[in-house]
């Protein structure tokens, strides 16, 4: 949002909603091929190549500071059971 809320000559080319209204940037993103945009707008999965490998994953885990180790232990037991281990 900083590319739009306070555009300067140097960064204004990265903003697709120079009005500073974030909804316009979202509208632009929804109708744009996000795999071919400026790195400021590139989805996180493209920075780490996750988009190329996500099909190899069968489990997606969530780490939450509020549930801590108890939830991790439960999730790990579930994954091991699913794997037959």
Helix content: 40-55%
Overall spatial form = elongated
Radius of gyration: 19 Å
Number of contiguous helices: 5
Percent range for β-strand residues: under 5%
Tally of DSSP β-strands: 0
Counting copies of identical and different chains, the oligomeric state is single chain
Cα separation of the termini: 46 Å
The major pleated sheet works out as: none
Low-confidence stretches: none
Name the average pLDDT. 77
By secondary-structure content and strand pairing, the structural class works out as: mainly alpha
Order of helices and strands: HHHHH
The total number of structural domains is 2
Q: What does this 3D model show about the protein?
A:
The chain is mainly alpha-helical and 85 residues long. Helix content is 42%, strand content 0%.
Layout of secondary structure:
Layout lengths: L1 H4 L16 H9 L13 H4 L2 H4 L14 H15 L3
Offer a concise description of the structure.
With 85 residues, this protein is an all-alpha fold.
């Amino acid at each position: 949002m900083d590319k739009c809320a306070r555009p300067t000559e140097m960064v204004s080319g990265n903003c697709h909603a120079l009005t500073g209204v974030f909804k316009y940037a979202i509208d632009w993103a929804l109708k744009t091929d996000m795999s071919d945009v400026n790195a400021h707008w590139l989805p996180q999965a493209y920075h780490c190549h996750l988009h190329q490998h996500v099909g190899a994953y069968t489990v997606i885990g969530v780490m939450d500071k509020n549930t801590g180790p108890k939830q991790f232990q439960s999730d790990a037991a579930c994954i091991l059971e699913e794997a037959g281990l």
